[in-house]
Write a structure and sequence with these properties.
Layout lengths: L2 H29 L3 H28 L9 H15 L4 H32 L3 H34 L15 H21 L5
Helix pairs in contact: 1-2, 1-3, 1-4, 2-5, 3-4, 4-5
InterPro entries: DUF892_YciF-like (IPR010287), Ferritin-like (IPR012347), Ferritin-like_SF (IPR009078), YciF (IPR047114)
Pfam family, one: DUF892
Length: 200
């Protein structure tokens, strides 16, 4: 596989990721409690729409179509975001869950754009690099804004009830939570031999 093919795969992955995010951000904004978090997510939705267009423009420069690959990584991250929306949390705690999911999304995108930019630079595709850099700059700014937004939420969460109380043990688990718990234990079991050095 040529480097151009790898770049196209990376860009198609990003294109799918951004399109999935365009669909998910309105739900996340609607589920947020804090007006600042709602505003942040709504603003990033508009940025994301612009990022989709820049990716289309980059594909146009290359004479290639942007579709053809589904981003499973983003799908998984957005499922985690949906889990944060569905949890029985309120106020700042709910918003912290949404911000945590949003932060993971942004860092995933930052990694993707950084990789694609490196490949495009190596191929001498200056116009493509410029478009991808614009998207990367917005993702970095969004990640910083999310992080900054968590600071007042953390302070608020400490004043909402007993912050050390652990309700997790007393609540019945949903089917999804039971499945996740089972998978987590399987992951731990599979990794334990390697972690403890037994695989050598």
């Amino acid at each position: 596989m040529a480097l151009m093919d790898v770049l196209l795969d990376e860009m198609r992955d990003l294109y799918s990721a951004e399109n999935q995010l365009v669909k998910a951000l309105p739900k996340m904004a609607k589920g947020a409690v804090d007006p600042a978090v709602k505003s942040l997510l709504k603003n990033h939705l508009e940025e994301t729409k612009g990022q989709v267009q820049r990716l289309r423009d980059a594909f146009g420069i290359l004479g290639k179509k942007p579709t053809g690959q589904h981003c499973n990584g983003m799908e998984g991250l957005l499922e985690e975001g949906q889990d944060a929306l569905e949890k029985d949390e309120e106020g700042a705690n709910k918003d912290l869950g949404i911000c945590g999911a949003s932060s993971r999304v942004e860092h995933y995108e930052i990694a993707g754009y950084t990789t694609a930019i490196g490949m495009a630079k190596a191929l001498g595709l200056k116009d493509v690099v410029n478009l991808l850099n614009q998207n990367l700059a917005e993702e970095v700014a969004a990640a910083k804004a999310i992080f900054a937004g968590t600071k007042p939420l953390l302070r608020a969460a400490l004043t909402e009830g007993d912050p050390t109380e652990n309700e997790e043990e007393s609540k019945p688990k949903s089917g999804k939570e039971k499945y996740s718990d089972k998978k987590s234990k399987e992951d731990e079991k599979k990794a334990s031999a390697s972690v403890s050095g037994k695989s050598r």
